[in-house]
Design a protein that fits this description.
Elements: E1 9-17, E2 23-32, E3 38-45, E4 48-53, E5 62-64, E6 77-84, E7 93-101, H1 108-116, H2 125-133, E8 147-148, E9 155-158, E10 167-176, E11 179-189, H3 200-208, E12 212-214, E13 217-219, H4 224-230, E14 238-249, E15 254-265, E16 268-271, H5 272-280, H6 285-289, H7 294-314, E17 319-320, E18 324-328, E19 334-339, H8 344-367, E20 373-375, H9 381-393, H10 406-416, H11 422-431, E21 437-439, H12 463-476, H13 491-501, H14 516-551, E22 558-567, E23 570-575, E24 581-585, E25 594-597, E26 602-605, E27 611-613, E28 617-626, E29 631-636, H15 641-651, E30 675-676, H16 679-686, H17 708-721
Helix pairs in contact: 1-14, 2-3, 7-8, 8-12, 9-11, 13-14, 15-17
Length: 732
Amino acid sequence: MRAVLHKDRVKARIVRHDRKNRPEGRVTEIIERSSNPIIGRLLQESGVWLVAPEDKRYGQDVLIPKGATGTAKSGQIVVVQLTEPPALFGQPVGRVKEVLGEIDDPGMEIEIAVRKYGVPHEFSDAALALARTLPDTVRPADKKHRVDLSDVPLVTIDGEDARDFDDAVYCEPAKVGRGKGWRLLVAIADVSHYVETGSAIDVDAYDRATSVYFPRRVIPMLPEKLSNGLCSLNPNVERLCMVCDMLVNAKGEVHAYQFYPAVMFSHARFTYTEVAAILANTRGPEAAQRKALVPHLLDLHDVYQALLKERSVRGAVDFETTETQIVCDDAGRIEKIVPRTRNVAHRLIEEAMLAANVCSADYISQSKHVGLFRVHEGPTPEKKDMLRNYLKAIGLGLSISDDPSPSEFQQIAVATKDRPDAQQIHSMLLRSMQQAIYTPMNNGHFGLAYEAYTHFTSPIRRYPDLLVHRVIKAILNQTTYQLPSLPTPGEAEAKLSKRLASRVSDPTQKPKKVSVDQLAWLAAGLHCSANERRADEASRDVEAWLKCKYMREHLGEEFGGVVTAATGFGIFVTLDAMYVEGLVHITELGGEYFRFDEARQELRGERTGIRYAIGTRVRVQVSRVDLDGRKIDFRLVREGEELLTRAMKDKTGGRSTDLPEQERGANRSAGEARGDNRVDKRADKRSGQGAGGRGSSAGGSRASVSPIQALKAAVKKSAGSAGRKSSKKPRR
């Protein structure tokens, strides 16, 4: 491995298998060297300049010749271009290509992340030049062949810090068939009118595939003139839009829909907080300021409640989870980490967007046009078995079938929501699901329980939505949208392609021949899916860096927390007050042998019977913070009374340690409840790493005081008072 670096393409030969039957190999040939630059800290040791890579997947330092350091100074973060690859007996050599600055400079974590993950963060000169030629306002020529909706009181509802507005909504009562219902309008920014296929802006947008959101900074998919100006549905200005015009009946079913291009005029820019306050009190100060629009908000709330009923009938999955938001000061330092609270306004907009997305998917399917669907498939056989074993191990009288439906998952979630171990159960349900992807092959959306689903509502920040708009326009014009010739899929796309190929139901069946057009759409879906993952990884990396930097100021302090994962090497704990996750290594759990129970997803002490599973409450001390590795280590602080008393009762016959945790009054926490309908997004995040870095880490020293001696004395005393004496020797 000394002759290769991270992202080099190699040929390898399997030479043996280890004790767990995992193959071990030997590199036989280096096929291609990675051209990616390396980001790291410039150091000088014994007169030799070198760069220590920030990404620990690069296992070697890079030597820098004296004349190749440029203006960089020791300790600064730099970007290095390799001039000589590593060899069996020599380190890699490079030159400083760019100086990013000092490690503590505001925003440095973002500068590192965008380069580390290869996120395009600068628009091409051609794209910027083209953006400058675009108008500042809607021109009379742009309004031709469009429906004029400027008199319809469409409004936007977004977060307080939103700068671009993709969607606007309006609702009014309407007769649907013979019964009552609503007319629901969802107007989406018409980005495709300004971004032509194959233009310089389009090439840059495809390369990015999505906007990337960091604390205090966004790297947009489109130039600012479009994302915050011409395409943003700002209040009190005319904007071009694509409209999904729906009739929804009293049952919450979309009875009919149509798509058309339009011109709109946003009558107000609402925030979620403001709308929630108005719906809670229509006579309050917030409602008084928006008196003319309050009736339309009430109509929106009525159609939302109907859509919610239909969601329940459909059996879509809706778990309670907690997501956090990092609040920074002007210098980029974390002030606090707070949970994202979702109110009725969030859910109202979400249901409206889901309805529009389903209509767009149905429209593409009915027209027989090729397009990108948002596909979320059911659990794999391995994950189904894992979930069944877990549900059986905890003694839950519910399980899933061989071909489970989303409603089965939702039934388990609803039946267990009031249990003390609800958080653990819901976490395991989420883990059993797959990641959602973009693909022209419509296999439905499992989590949302839709036969066809796509993304239509965010073309400013997602390229798949822009493609869906172009397809819908082509169908309206009775033409076919052709994708331009696209670049060859890269490494990440190749992995997703292999994953798609592995899903053929019959392994003996030959894959169907696909046309060049279908191949182009498949490549586009793979590219967008891979870059969505890239954006998520970069965002998580920055959040982890900020949390580590924040926790350095709290070294040695004690906090209460809850176990969010159990592994063979320790437990991950999320702090109550800060929502930061760190690792308590197994060596910090006390002086006994702990065994990992995969079925129950818990660590159990062999002698004491102490259990650590998802949801167990503990108290920890911050013992170590590794900023470079994005890892936080905790040391378990024994509160003594609760865990020891419980273990003592288990040992002296008070209660069996083999009983289900909920029957033993285990120390669990249901966590901060928050409804979230973005099943595919949350399932993706569960597969990522927290701030503590979901990896093995032996950091932190052993606790100075172990409770085992106290426990043994307590057990011995209790057994003696009961007139019993154990004849067995203690296990070592």
